[in-house]
Amino acid sequence: MNRIVLICSIGMSTTLLVSKMKASAKEKGINCTIKAISELELKKYENEVDVVLLGPQVKFMFKKLQNKFQEKCIPVDMINTVDYGTMNGEKVLKQALNLLQCKRNETKAII
């Protein structure tokens, strides 16, 4: 099961986006968990995640989190500003799944 975490300042603004992502995943038959958390909650979930997406309001954390999760081979990316602003759950889900696919391809190449 794919575990997707969206991070924003206090975890509230991504709640609607998560709902739309879950609806899109259900419609497509994709088995995943999707959570919206605040930057302060990250430590609690850092071992329960396969991909991390950041909302525009926390883009200042991108490099730090990318470096932190790189050693665990967990992709970190920014949510596209337009997709975030329009709450396009389908596109953000696709972004997360594409990152997971790249991760799997890289892991296969290493083995």
Domains (count): 1
The proportion of strand residues reads 15-25%
Main-sheet strand order equals: 2-1-3-4
Based on helices, strands and strand pairing, what is the structural class?
alpha/beta
How big is the Rg? 13 Å
- Indicate the mean pLDDT: 90
Give the SSE order as H and E letters: EHEHEHEHH
Quickly give the CATH architecture.
3-Layer(aba) Sandwich
Ends distance: 21 Å
Q: Secondary-structure map with pairings?
A:
Blueprint: E1 2-8, H1 15-28, E2 32-38, H2 42-45, E3 51-54, H3 62-70, E4 76-78, H4 81-85, H5 89-110
Parallel strand pairs: 1-2, 1-3, 3-4
What does it look like?
Helix 3 (62-70) links the parallel strand 3 and strand 4 (76-78). The protein has helices at 15-28, 42-45, 62-70, 81-85, 89-110; strands spanning 2-8, 32-38, 51-54, 76-78. A four-stranded parallel beta sheet has the order 2-1-3-4. The model has no long low-confidence stretch (mean pLDDT 90). It is an alpha/beta fold. Helix 1 (15-28) crosses helix 5. The protein is built from five helices and four strands; from the N terminus they run E-H-E-H-E-H-E-H-H. It has a single domain (2-109), classed as Response regulator (Rossmann fold), CATH 3.40.50.2300.
